[in-house]
Design brief:
By secondary structure, this protein is an alpha/beta fold. It has a single domain, classed as TIM Barrel (Alpha-Beta Barrel). The radius of gyration is 21 Å and the shape is globular.
Length: about 350
């Protein structure tokens, strides 16, 4: 991203902050691999945005961890940039998808980076992002990530849809391989007397069950609250939509010519602001729609009908939510009865 575009981004965020009287905004440096830009460039971006925006700016960077050197970490500490690291589990699990171009394993480099982050700047450690692969043992995956004491783990379902199916998902069969994989971790995590980390999907589902509002787009009916700014300044919807079809995330808008409010008026974004009205008829008839929210928007796509479908992971989400509900509702009932007992 050129510095001219960085300045345009800063101006548009400032404009949006003033228009909506915002006290804080969050800026995530994402990619690709954002640390390829170099620590000096990252410092320039953060300095430029903070100087222009009349609000608290919370920065985060999502990295694969291979370039998290002492020099880079010094910059992240100085600029107070929180760090999320992508790690899919043990060495064998991580190397299924995260090898160097030469074929060499990246796991040892990433684990050293995680140790460096944990030891030098634990207050900046935002958590670990891990993409589910059914070939990996769920408990081994969870325990291997837990070794680094992350404050949060975000297990993500691999992107896929009804036209381009995710690995191991057969739409004809009624099974729930991803739901069972995640439930295995949930049962282990929930049975721990004092869980040492948050697992975002589980916490959000429990939060919804207890009457709260979702803060993520993978479950619940929360309105989309982010915009992607590409290196050329073009504005896109959440980048996961690229997995649906070519151009799915495109808005036709650009920070050089359009304010962020123009994105709020975009039909595709409006469709993700209207809650239950934006769900398919099948989802609206389901008793779990307020919990799963139809699943992640990108996972609903089917050629010919667009996004007006249940998630391709519908069976998996149902399996997971029902199991979480049984455990949590049982405990809530037990605690409620205990509270009625005479002291």
């Amino acid at each position: 991203m050129t510095l001219d575009t960085v300045n345009s981004v800063a101006g548009r965020i400032a404009e949006h902050v003033n228009a909506h009287d915002l006290e804080n905004v969050q800026v995530v440096l994402h990619g690709g691999e954002p640390l390829l830009a170099g620590h000096a460039y990252i410092e320039t971006i953060t300095d430029t945005l903070r100087a222009a925006i009349p609000a608290q700016v919370d920065f985060r960077v999502q990295t694969n961890g291979t370039l998290l050197t002492d020099t880079v970490l010094d910059t992240l500490v100085r600029q107070e940039i929180r760090v999320g690291v992508s790690l899919d589990g043990s060495a064998s699990a991580n190397d299924l998808h995260r090898r160097y171009a030469s074929g060499r394993s990246s796991h040892s480099v990433v684990t050293r980076s995680l140790g460096r982050l944990r030891d030098r700047a634990p207050h900046l450690f935002a958590g670990v992002l891990s993409t589910v692969d059914l070939r990996n043992d769920p408990i081994e995956t969870y325990e291997s990530i837990l070794e680094f004491a992350p404050p949060l783990i975000d297990f993500l379902l691999p992107h896929g849809n009804w036209t381009n199916l995710p690995p191991g998902r057969d739409p004809v069969r009624p099974d729930a391989p991803y739901g069972k994989w995640l439930t295995t971790i949930f049962d282990h995590w929930y049975s721990t007397p004092r869980p040492v980390t948050l697992i975002r999907m589980f916490n959000e589902i429990i939060h919804l069950m207890l009457g709260g509002q979702s803060r993520i787009e993978t479950v619940g009916l929360a309105s989309v609250g982010l915009i992607v700014i590409n290196a050329d300044g073009s504005l896109e919807q959440v980048d996961a939509l690229r997995s649906a079809f070519n151009g799915a995330a495109v808005t036709g808008l650009n920070v050089h010519t359009n304010p962020f409010d123009a994105a709020l008026a975009h039909p595709a974004i409006i469709a993700r602001q209207i809650g239950v009205a934006g769900l398919s008829p099948i989802c609206r008839e389901c008793t779990l729609y307020h919990l799963c929210g139809g699943g992640m928007y990108a996972h609903r796509y089917r050629a010919g009908t667009g996004f007006l479908n249940p998630s391709v992971y519908c069976n998996d989400l149902t399996y997971l939510i029902q199991n979480i509900y049984r455990r949590v509702s049982s405990d809530v009932s037990r605690l409620a009865l205990k509270g009625k007992e005479p002291s």
